[in-house]
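Section 4.2 – Deliverable D4.2 (structural model, holo form)

The reporting period included a commitment to supply a predicted holo structure for the target in complex with N-oxalylglycine. Inputs used:
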Amino acid sequence: MDNFPIINLENLNGDERKATMEKIKDACENWGFFELVNHGIPHDLMDTVERLTKEHYRKCMEQRFKELVSSKGLEAVQTEVKDMDWESTFHLRHLPESNISEIPDLSDEYRKSMKEFALKLETLAEELLDLLCENLGLEKGYLKKALYGSKGPTFGTKVANYPPCPKPDLVKGLRAHTDAGGIILLFQDDKVSGLQLLKDGNWVDVPPMHHSIVINLGDQLEVITNGKYKSVEHRVVAQTDGTRMSIASFYNPGSDAVIYPAPTLIEENNEIYPKFVFEDYMNLYARLKFQAKEPRFEAFKESNVNLGPIATV
Ligand code: OGA
Ligand code: NI
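Output (structure tokens):
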């Protein structure tokens, strides 16, 4: 099998540009995932974010997680747990408005670093969207505009730690799913592994790598590209040793953005993906996240949408 795609973004500036664009295209078409090095986000900022995230976990989250585990009897389960994940998380929103100042228990330094990191990730996300446009033959700015809605994109970060787990075969760190949104940028632990993606029926590790950013594509890009790019199923396998840090930032459509396949990517009579308002998709996703994505798309196909009111009369 081919190796997990690693893209050196610096190579876009020289003789390697064409080969690098080709590599990104192949990753989007065949993996739904790739890992970026030399992405331009300062390594010292990443080091600060990592240090503060790990400190915050130890100070504010770890004890709470242990109490939750023991209250649910999770460490002693005998059968597969299907309704919970072995993860400790909190969420930050950056766009359309930041809520970082309202999140409790964060130091000023942590708030400031996360804001700075989010700004860099936002820029990187938009750069990547334009690289995807280029590969897809869409005009520059098309994807950014497609996700924009009336107030701009929704951009948020899920800060997670996956603590050591005594029963990783019975409890997943995070159960298999595809991501709902646009493009996802992940800063993951460089030592403790666990993230896997499903490729050709096999679970493949996303290799930890110092200072890299892992990129994956969500359901909305699958719809907009009319299936040329697919959102790929992934999961986190908990480890028996070590706590895995993962900071996942989701560049998603604005809630009122209308999502539909780009007309130039629809071959004649081949329109297979539906049109819907992103907020409606998210309402469905909230209930069906850990199930196959196809029924989510199906639910918005014209014939089914029309059935809705009839069925409820
Ligand atoms: C997610 C996700 C992966 C990770 O939050 O959707 O897939 O490594 N996270 O935390
Ligand atoms: Ni995910």
